[in-house]
């Protein structure tokens, strides 16, 4: 599945108990349609995203960046601290493509494909000029 949207805040890297690292960020996907009365309705869907392939990508996943994600979506439900039922959408990204960002346009290559988290590949991403 592919989704296109803008980051709502800068990405964060979390380290789990098993020493694996994940990049977490939130994406807002906008959609619009006309209702029966002909009025244009704007709708925004938010996804909590996770990217496990390479944590160095977090440096360029900044608030407002327009990205296209390839991956899978899942839904979750939980009871909040206030006792109310809550729900949300998760997106497990396997590929990230940048559509707009000053940093990605300077690099000349706006696509970061799914990468293995080998040390060599992490070093290659760390050497990118953005």
Automatic annotation (TrEMBL):
Signal sequence region: none
Gene Ontology molecular functions: DNA binding
Keywords linked to the UniProt accession: DNA-binding
Short name of one Pfam family: SSB
Stated name of the protein: Single-stranded DNA-binding protein
């Amino acid at each position: 599945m592919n989704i296109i949207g803008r980051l709502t805040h800068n990405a964060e890297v979390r380290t789990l108990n098993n020493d694996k690292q994940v990049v977490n960020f939130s994406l807002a996907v906008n959609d619009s349609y006309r209702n029966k009365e002909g009025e244009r309705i704007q709708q925004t869907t938010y996804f909590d995203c996770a990217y496990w392939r390479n944590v160095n990508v977090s440096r360029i996943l900044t608030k407002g960046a327009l990205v296209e994600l390839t991956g899978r979506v899942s839904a979750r439900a939980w009871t909040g601290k206030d006792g109310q039922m809550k729900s949300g959408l998760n997106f497990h990204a396997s590929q990230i493509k940048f559509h707009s960002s000053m940093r990605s346009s300077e690099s000349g290559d706006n696509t970061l494909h799914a990468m293995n988290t080998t040390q060599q590949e992490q070093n290659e991403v760390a050497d990118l000029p953005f």
